[in-house]
Amino acid sequence: MSYEALMEKLGFAGSEKLEKILKYVMDEEEAKVASALPGTIDEISAKVGIEKERVRDILEGLFKKGVVFPRDFKNREYFRFARDIIQLHDSTLASKHVKDPELARFWKEFLEYEGYKRMGELLSLSGVKIWRVIPAYNAIKDLPDVLPHENMKEIMKAQQKIAVVPCSCRNLSMLIREPCKHTDEKTWHCIQVGRGAEYVIAKDAGIELSHEAALALIDEIERDGLVHTWPNTSKMVDPRITVNCNCCPDCCEFFLSSRAAKVDIGSIIEKSRYEAFVEIDKCTGCQTCVERCPFDAIELFKPEGSKKFKARVIPEKCFGCGVCVVGCERSAIRLKAVRPPEFIPP
pTM of the full predicted structure? Predict the structure, then answer.
């Protein structure tokens, strides 16, 4: 009954694929304790009839595995189970210690069978775009009137604590031997901030970063062609803001969920205030921007009277991520603000 209760909490009651994951990361005793959460160690001990120190050991083990979460990372007395399937996915896979192909295979089977589709449907139907694209710093650094909360380096400078872990999505791809086409993930790219950083440091999932190291990592992320995403708010620091995802179209939950659910990714994540524009005279038609664009928003065409193909942006598809700008050696493409500052929610 414990596994069934946990699947119901996650919104996937009766899922045989999810049950495989839960049974792989928890034995029956651990599942019994996890299903009794939330609560203090004393409360859970009384509820499940297991000696207090044994409950403590079980919860510590599940915390290290990414299954349960303490309220206080230093004084770990009160715990809760993962709040949703995305958090369970990310916390069980985004760790330097997770190198288990079997766990990754179980997750992949579940996600492809039902997980991605359900996540895409739920995110799209909610009508709330929780995440927003942040334009590449190196695509906007010389532009006027860039807001602090759309400048990735200013966002990093504002953080009190920063850490980095392997990306859960790309770690899964790597473990099942379908590696990311954009980065080999030898350098980790999932940036944790605030409580998120405290969490991964406490469970030894990643490493703490200095501000200088975080700023250098931003440059590397942009060279690799990954898309910065951030909660869809003008807040740069908030207890609820815990992660800066840096996404790719072949591994990322946002992209794969939207495809599986057959919904526009624009119904799941919000665009930046920017849009890409091509300077035709500078463009050589090399196709680099076409290949780098994660949103399929750039195509080649032959201008009237020209012998060469040139790039052009499809405005409705452009998310203003700046990946194309960073990759253009001819500086033939640039970002321009096309939406007002109030486009970004408070």
Answer: 0.95
